[in-house]
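Archive transcription. Copying these from loose printouts into the bound notebook so they stop getting lost. Printout 1 of 2:
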Amino acid sequence: MSGNLKARRRVAILKTIFDTLGLESERVHLEWISASEGKKFADTVKKITEETKQQGPNPLAKHWSI
């Protein structure tokens, strides 16, 4: 099994775990971007950053004593 397929499977499992914990599974992202796609990478990072800011802090963070 290739690394890309393993990653896709692991992300799917992680999204299920997030749903089980009551977190938004949208907090986990996987995007296939080639090294030659600099603009796509920058646009994707910007989009993910904006979405993360809208979601706010992790709701489970208040239960952690760091």
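Printout 2 of 2:
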Amino acid sequence: MLGVLKTKPFFTDKEKEQILAAIEAAEKRTSGEIRVHVESGSGKDPLARAREVFEKLGMTGTKLRNGVLIYLATKDRRFAIIGDQGIDRVVPENFWEETKERMGHFFKEGRFTDGVCHGISSVGELLAVHFPYQSDDLNELSDEISEEA
């Protein structure tokens, strides 16, 4: 009989709660949508893989095309942040790289949850400026952290 090898999740339940709380706090101020995706890695360029995951998660389906994905490839030790067309049109030129750099400082210290929460907060602030929360806003995408082995 073959056993099934289960991998340990990258984030603990408590850490996931912190990340979900950060997403919820950010999305209370914006019509934008923020998702986090974690996988061990794909061997691909993290930006290219993030674009694939973005599509797979249906993130191009938001009304204002203002979804943002934080993608982590844990085994590859790489990550990327991408935004949909609506947000890409309005972000400052180096916003994604600067946010990624600040997150990377946390990651280098082994503070992955803090780094992700910092990225979510930064993205949320920018989204709130360009896509403020409206009274009729709907949460168009799941806030759950998606994971692949």
